[in-house]
Design goal:
five-stranded mixed beta barrel, OB fold (Dihydrolipoamide Acetyltransferase, E2P), 221 residues
């Protein structure tokens, strides 16, 4: 009796169409990965491109913008004795002639010399020679500097430059802090009473008889 050897049957081959499909799918996958790689930028932590470094900084804004705002107000400042009769006679005309338009009252740059009177919460009254008696002049010295007069004075710092209202408001606060560091921190405000000071600054024209000046320059005589 002759022994018979049984040969294993070869594995069935995948149809040609199926193999082509796998090759095409693989090629597409590689192409997608290559496209993702080309479109991906590696951003080192702490680098200038790091998104976390791009958050709005009010203090950086204030430090960079204050010298320009200060220069603008120093250039445009009007003597108080010239400004006073103008605002009393015609508030709107004075705002148009001397000020920067704003939705909550024009910002007027002013130069004033006066004797420092009583102060409260860092706000001091000034007695100014040659001003009508009905006009009350006060100047902010801190520690808190309020308002957005410095932000609004040049007229080119607009809401549309910021992400939202909070950033826009914070921009004003950043400018106030930068001004305080540059102008007021070297002055002993508590010792100003009775002294003559020259102030250049800006105020918002809401009530023509009430000027609250945010300074950009203070000289103690």
């Amino acid at each position: 009796m002759t022994a018979q050897t049984t040969q294993p049957s070869p594995a069935p081959r995948a149809p040609a169409a199926s193999r082509r499909g796998s090759v095409i799918a693989g090629a597409i996958g590689l192409a997608v990965l290559a496209a993702i790689a080309l479109d991906t930028t590696i951003v080192p932590i702490g680098s200038e491109a790091d998104v976390r470094q791009q958050a709005f900084s009010p203090d950086s804004f204030g430090t960079s913008e204050f010298p320009r705002v200060q220069a603008f107000i120093l250039e445009k400042a009007v003597e108080a004795q010239t400004l006073a009769p103008a605002v009393l006679a015609d508030k709107a005309a004075a705002a148009k002639t001397y000020g920067t338009a704003s939705t909550t009252g024009a910002i007027l740059p002013v130069r004033v010399t006066g004797v420092v009177g009583e102060g409260k919460a860092g706000v001091y009254a000034l007695t100014v020679e040659g001003l009508p008696a009905e006009i009350k002049v006060r100047v902010q010295t801190g520690p808190a500097i309020n308002g957005t007069d410095l932000r609004d004075a040049p007229g080119d710092i607009a809401f549309g430059q910021f992400k939202n209202q909070i950033e826009y408001q914070d921009a004003g606060s950043g400018l106030n802090r930068a001004m305080k560091a540059a102008v007021l921190d070297g002055i002993d405000a508590a010792a100003l009473h009775g002294k003559t000071i020259e102030v250049v600054g800006a105020f918002r024209l809401v009530n023509p008889k009430n000027w609250m000046i945010t300074p950009v320059q203070v000289v103690v005589k």
